[in-house]
Amino acid sequence: MAARRAKSATNEAAQQAGDAVAIGVLDELLGFHLRQAHDASFRAFARNSGDPRLRPGRFAAMMVIHNNPGITQVALSRAIARDKSSITPLIQELQRLGLVIRKPSPRDRRSTTLRLTAAGERMLADLLEHARAHDRQLDAVVGDKKRELIALLRQIAEALT
Known about the structure:
Mean pLDDT: 88
Largest sheet: 3 strands, antiparallel
Strand order of the largest sheet: 1-3-2
């Protein structure tokens, strides 16, 4: 109890000095730190690419479409862990930019299939270059613990889905 009061007093003093904002119990929650790291990673990717069109979410979708030409939107949303409410606008944006072609599925008329256009393939090559550079920055942070970290992140994702 005394330790908690001391920490609270320290946080209060830091706030008054304008140095920091007390986040309380958030500092002890793994989910909060996962979100902080995720957001920082996305901001760094966007900043380093120098092109607002080169975003990690777009990269993931385009890479999966590239590796699975003719994939359905439903399969894509599962592969990149996006729900229907966010995958549809993403695909519409990619289509509007001329990066993806949507066609009715020959197997199921209720589904559409996705393929990258030639412009999409070129954009993906740019995105891949930026993703690799970004990953090198992350490698510098995690060092030889990269495989361990990826394994832990996969465990978290699998356990929570």
